[in-house]
Task: inverse folding
């Protein structure tokens, strides 16, 4: 599929603002294979680190996943969701997206116990397209109790 004019502009800007290059470095560090995707996007498949915990995540115009390329081909809604994140990098002039996303994820977690539900970036990218379930706002005490309970129940590594 050919790129539109604006998709080409986004590709250039996300290259110049270093967000796509940062994505490439993360992909290489995670020993992922990089290939062309649709509309000026790139895929990094076979990403090995266990963080972040997500089916896919985007840095610049690069979408990373632990899965193979078929994962993206089978989930066009997810690719559209991740493409919206690439536009967020474009609008925020690249790397400022990373700390802003972390703040938004923290805020969402404090409000709902879920880093996506009230995260403005995930909401703008469409929660459903990203396979997220919307969680209701809950009292902070409940969120903290759930978080500490989950930490206590984790098996300890030795």
Result:
């Amino acid at each position: 599929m050919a790129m539109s004019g604006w998709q080409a502009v986004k590709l250039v800007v996300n290259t110049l603002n270093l967000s796509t290059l940062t994505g490439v470095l993360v992909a290489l560090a995670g020993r992922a294979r990089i290939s062309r995707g649709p509309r000026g996007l790139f895929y990094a498949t076979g990403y090995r680190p266990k963080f972040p915990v997500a089916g896919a995540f985007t840095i610049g115009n690069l979408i990373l996943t632990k899965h193979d390329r078929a994962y993206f081909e089978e989930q066009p809604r997810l690719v559209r969701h991740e493409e919206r994140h690439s536009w967020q990098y474009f609008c925020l002039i690249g790397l400022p997206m990373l700390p802003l996303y972390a703040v938004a994820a923290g805020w969402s977690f404090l409000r709902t116990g879920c880093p996506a539900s009230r995260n403005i970036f995930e909401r703008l990218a469409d929660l459903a397209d990203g396979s997220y379930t919307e969680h209701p706002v809950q009292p902070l005490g409940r969120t903290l109790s759930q978080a500490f309970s989950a930490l206590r129940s984790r098996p300890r590594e030795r």
